[in-house]
Amino acid sequence: MLARKSIIPEEYVLARIAAENLRKPRIRDRPRKARFIAKNGACNLAHKNIREQGRFLQDIFTTLVDLKWRHTLVIFTMSFLCSWLLFAMMWWLVAFAHGDMDPSTESATNSTKWTPCVTCVRSFTSAFLFSIEVQVTIGFGGRMMTEECPLAITVLILQNIVGLIINAVMLGCIFMKTAQAHRRAETLIFSRQAVIAVRNGKLCFMFRVGDLRKSMIISASVRIQVVRKTTTPEGEVIPIHQVDIPVDNPIESNNIFLVAPLIICHVIDKRSPLYDISAADLMLQDLELIVILEGVVETTGITTQARTSYIAEEILWGHRFVPIVTEEEGVYAVDYSKFGNTVKVAAPRCSARELDEKPSILIQTLQKSELSHQNSLRKRNSMRRNNSIRRSNSMRRTNPSLIVPKVQFITPEGSQSASET
């Protein structure tokens, strides 16, 4: 360290470090805005300070369905255990009040002078086993009820009714959690990125949607909403302002026939919130486009909904999705490995408003792309021609047998002429 300090002065080192730091560009990333809808369709929303918690108990069935699986299974197990323990205590009290727990009654029972309410119930354990047998209708045959106690018959009827109610509620809750509609939405996929390109002379916002299952979604419809923070002329700030935007469809309806992956198109016109946004302004916009796909599951008849969203960073300007549906041996095949692949295409960088005011921008853009395409084709053809010529020359140099010998022809006058073929 001493030798280095003696060779390089400290003032020079500090000055060089400062100069390097000044030359480096300081780029500060823009704080990333929280998404309203995640890519998997989950709502990024937290409910806080809810004072009326009792409203959830008024709709107990929906509350049980919305709970997590571990909580549902704990409630399912505890409901049966508590009912068995409750009626076991009731059976034990009935037997205790009738005197079935007295040891002296056992000899009387064997001599057929004493009839208990429930045979073989002489402890709380046997009462608990009898409660399980009654509610689950197992019936091992050792413990059974007699006609001695009307109260025992009433407890039997009550336990059967309560057991049926618990079975209906809990089994229905388990079934609804297993067959929830959002499980079907797991096989409905959206492209990770959306694109903006020219289609039919108009700027269009496009994305791709597909269904991985063979069972179709009946009456499928697509809705698009733009969510952004806006301020009214009165100064009111709306943090989540939702605006519906139309979907391009020849039959003027949002319904689609989702038999194969489709490209959903939104024409950016005067009704669109994207009408004044150009390619340069897109990255500065604080907006989120939410896509909602709804339909009826063909196999279960339950309505399902799949959601996703696209922010400004996930929208590619001047791109188009590659085709993935081909016909192979009379069958249409879908290659899902190219589901989200895009290619660059010619598209004006201006907004849709400027494109409507100056249609010549689109013509100039298409002409430039056509010229660049022709130039690239010429360069490619010339490179192929040069490569083929070089390859043939190299083959002639390496193989002397390919060189054509000179042939001499004798004319009638006797002169000789040499020609090379």
Automatic annotation (TrEMBL):
Q: What is this protein called?
A: KCNJ8 protein
GO molecular-function terms, A-Z? ATP-activated inward rectifier potassium channel activity
Segments spanning the bilayer are 73-94, 151-175
GO cellular component terms attached to this protein's record: monoatomic ion channel complex; plasma membrane
Native species of this protein?
Balaeniceps rex (Shoebill)
Q: Which InterPro entries match?
A: Ig_E-set, IRK_C, K_chnl_inward-rec_Kir, K_chnl_inward-rec_Kir6.1, K_chnl_inward-rec_Kir_cyto, Kir_TM
Q: Which Gene3D superfamilies match?
A: 1.10.287.70, G protein-activated inward rectifier potassium channel 1 (2.60.40.1400)
Location relative to the cell? Membrane
Q: Which UniProt keywords apply?
A: Ion channel, Ion transport, Membrane, Phosphoprotein, Potassium, Potassium transport, Transmembrane, Transmembrane helix, Transport, Voltage-gated channel
Catalysed transformations (reactions): K(+)(in) = K(+)(out)
Give the gene symbol.
Answer: Kcnj8
Q: Report the membrane topology from the UniProt record.
A: Multi-pass membrane protein
Region spans: Disordered? 372-397
Query: Site annotation (Role in the control of polyamine-mediated channel gating and in the blocking by intracellular magnesium): which residues?
Result: 167
Record-annotated Inward rectifier potassium channel C-terminal domain positions: 188-358
What taxonomic lineage is listed for the species of origin?
A: Eukaryota, Metazoa, Chordata, Craniata, Vertebrata
Biased-composition ranges, Low complexity, are 384-397
Provide a GO biological process annotation: regulation of monoatomic ion transmembrane transport
Write out the similarity annotation. Answer: Belongs to the inward rectifier-type potassium channel (TC 1.A.2.1) family.
Please state every residue range assigned to the domain named Potassium channel inwardly rectifying transmembrane: 37-180
